[in-house]
Amino acid sequence: MAEPIAIVPDEVLTGEAVALDVQPLGFFLRALGALIDVLVAVGLTLLLAWVSGWMLGQNVVDPGASSILSILVIVVVTIVLPTTVETLTRGRSLGRLAVGGRIVRADGGAAGFRQALIRALVGVLEIWMTLGAIALLVGAFTPRSQRLGDLMAGTYSQRTRTPPLPPNAPLLPPALGEWSQVADVTRLPDRVARRCAQFVRQADRMEPGSRLRQAALLAAEVRPFLSPVPAVDAETLVRAAVAVRRDREYRALLLEDERVGSLLRRTATVPRGFPER
């Protein structure tokens, strides 16, 4: 019996049972994007209302059609325009571009016309008729900050701006090349190794005094687990321990990958048995 697939809150399970690590847009960023869209819509409403008033004043249209123009402006701004923009831009809008968000389906796929129309129709109630109160209340208590329209359409706002990649890890100091060949770092605890790696990544941005103190504290924790201990300063010792541990773990992963590839190739070349007569 196959084991169940565990999905963490920040993962999306596709139709092929592949878990995608995606980040939903936060509540406050999404609220800011919605506010920008609402302000744009209000400005467009005022512009269309002015155009409608000018047309009525110039007798371009029948004065009895003023109510029809008002309804048409409201429908265009609240339903037609949001649906069209989301459909053509695959879930984007001016506000979402500003905050780095995009509306996608629950399985991570691009939202289409049906999802955009449902969101726009429900948005008339939760955004315009209640001044956004329902959207804020529902979004504050849903895991992905989904408003009522998202829950009905099966969508959420995905973060499109990913954080920058961390800088490359520093190389082993050249003076410790021979030491790295015989150094034993296997006893170094994972918690100490993580703190050392974090220090190495941030050392160049630290104040000199704080950098020296932190390096001394970490070196004191590292020395009991290194053999032999090189005669170097505290920061060089920490950097060397991190580099050696990283390089050896990387080589172990490469060897494991080679073993798996060799096993797969060997399995593929084994001739199949002849069918029974």
Secondary structure blueprint with pairings:
Blueprint: E1 11-13, E2 19-21, H1 27-57, H2 66-88, H3 94-99, E3 101-105, H4 113-129, H5 133-140, H6 148-153, E4 155-159, H7 177-182, H8 190-202, H9 208-222, H10 234-269
Antiparallel strand pairs: 1-2, 3-4
Helix pairs in contact: 1-2, 2-4, 8-9, 8-10, 9-10
Describe the structure.
With 277 residues, the chain is mainly α. The protein folds into 2 domains: 11-159, no CATH class; 174-268, no CATH class. Helices cover 58% and strands 6% of the residues. The protein contains 10 helices and 4 strands; from the N terminus they run ββαααβαααβαααα. It has helices spanning 27-57, 66-88, 94-99, 113-129, 133-140, 148-153, 177-182, 190-202, 208-222, 234-269, and strands at residues 11-13, 19-21, 101-105, 155-159. β1 and β2 (19-21) form a beta hairpin. α2 (66-88) packs across α4 (113-129), α8 packs antiparallel against α9 (208-222) and α8 crosses α10. The relative contact order is 0.08. The model is unreliable at 1-10 and 13-19 (pLDDT under 50). Keywords: Membrane, Transmembrane, Transmembrane helix. Pfam families: RDD (PF06271). It is a multi-pass membrane protein.
Structure described in brief:
The longest helix is centred in the C-terminal third of the chain and has 36 residues, at 234-269. The protein has a two-stranded antiparallel ribbon with strand order 1-2. It has helices spanning 27-57, 66-88, 94-99, 113-129, 133-140, 148-153, 177-182, 190-202, 208-222, 234-269; strands spanning 11-13, 19-21, 101-105, 155-159.
